[in-house]
Amino acid sequence: MPPGRKHRKTEKILLDIGRFLVVLVTTYLGLLAVTFFIGRVIPIDPVLAVLGDRAPASAIARVREEMGLDLPLWQQFFIYVRQILSGDFGTSVLTTNPVLTDIARVFPATLELATFGTVIGTLLGIPLGVLAAVKRGTLIDQLVRLVGLVGYSVPIFWLALLSLLLFYAKLGWVAFPGRIDIVYEYTFTPITQIFLLDALLQRQWDVAWDVFRHIVLPGSLLGYFSMAYISRMTRSFMLNELAQEYVVAARAKGLSESRIIWSHALRNAAVPLVTVIALSYAGLLEGSVLTETVFSWPGLGLYITNSLQSADMNAVLGSTLAIGSAFIALNLLSDLLYRTLDPRTRTR
């Protein structure tokens, strides 16, 4: 490679890294600003949440000064940023534990539930989207679009309650709400805190079956909503690919329709689908609050709900920041994968 070309390539790599870091820092500072001002706008006094509304005025003033709430807003923001960057999310009023410790304890449950839902949504959504695109305008296409529309329209808490009534109360096909039966709760030792994976790794088949019976209903509901989004986007991408000239040329060469669809059109559509799946995954991580509440799933969503009911703003804002960080990370990862899979983006 000529020295000049090698130098330009190095400059481009360094420029891309610089842009990536600028976007990361700017986005995260924006997230910190949003969570900070939410904590100041919400009409909940953090001092009263700690001391109670019957505390003497002298104690309230002292704690307010200790928490830095008597300082100008811009100084409070810089203190908040410094604390977050040092890993200090504050202390939970509800559990009296550091918020970061509580998040580390409950987040794996949310991660397991969202992963389960994303796997279901991807495995069902992509084939249904491809089928709808291939059968465009037919009854099959209309049915797939109708299923997706219902997934967008029906409130998840209402569907969750109906599912509990049918599959748990009436049919008894799934286990009681929660993550694991109390019989195994104190005898099962998780390794990664992803219970289903841990049970399979340790070959504890009875525990794995119990965990599956607990996760299958809430995970399937999240998977249904994920499937609605993925199938819709897959259909759109496939329609665009099937109208391209290379598909016409492939048909003229006599290639089979299945090979054209699955080996050529879907391969090209898979590049933007990576971003869609990543965003769907992030959406399940941040949008599982109602699902976890209905199914008593001990994850971050239930933790936020209980914290809100207790006016525990440190826990609420820390959890919001954790979910926002996960969303940013997944978004940046999907962008990186998009650039890796599509050579055209690397030449821009």
Brief write-up:
This protein has 348 residues and is mainly alpha-helical. The chain has 16 helices and no strands.
How big is the Rg? 25 Å
Mean pLDDT: 82
Low-pLDDT parts are none
| Distance separating the two termini | 20 Å
Per CATH, which architecture of the largest domain? Orthogonal Bundle
Please trace the helix and strand order, writing H or E for each element.
HHHHHHHHHHHHHHHH
At the first level of CATH, what is the class of the largest domain? Mainly Alpha
- Report the principal-axis shape: globular
What's the story with the biggest beta sheet?
A: none
Number of domains as seen in the coordinates: 2
| Count of β-strands | 0
Question: Helicity range of the residues?
Answer: over 70%
> Beta-strand level of the residues, as a percent range?
under 5%
Structural class: mainly alpha
Put simply, the count of helices is: 16
- The CATH superfamily of the largest domain bears the name MetI-like
**CATH-defined topology of the largest domain:** MetI-like fold
Topology:
Elements: H1 3-41, H2 46-51, H3 57-66, H4 73-85, H5 99-134, H6 139-153, H7 156-170, H8 182-185, H9 195-201, H10 205-242, H11 245-252, H12 257-287, H13 289-294, H14 300-309, H15 313-341, H16 343-346
Helix pairs in contact: 1-15, 5-6, 5-10, 5-12, 5-15, 6-10, 7-10, 9-10, 10-12, 12-15, 14-15
Give structural attributes.
MetI-like; 348 residues; cell membrane; 2 domains; 16 helices; MetI-like fold
Q: What features would you describe in this structure?
A:
The protein has 348 residues and is mainly alpha-helical. The protein has two domains: 3-85, no CATH class; 99-346, MetI-like fold (Orthogonal Bundle), CATH 1.10.3720. 78% of the residues lie in helices and 0% in strands. The chain is built from 16 helices and no strands. The radius of gyration is 25 Å and the shape is globular. The model has no long low-confidence stretch (mean pLDDT 82).
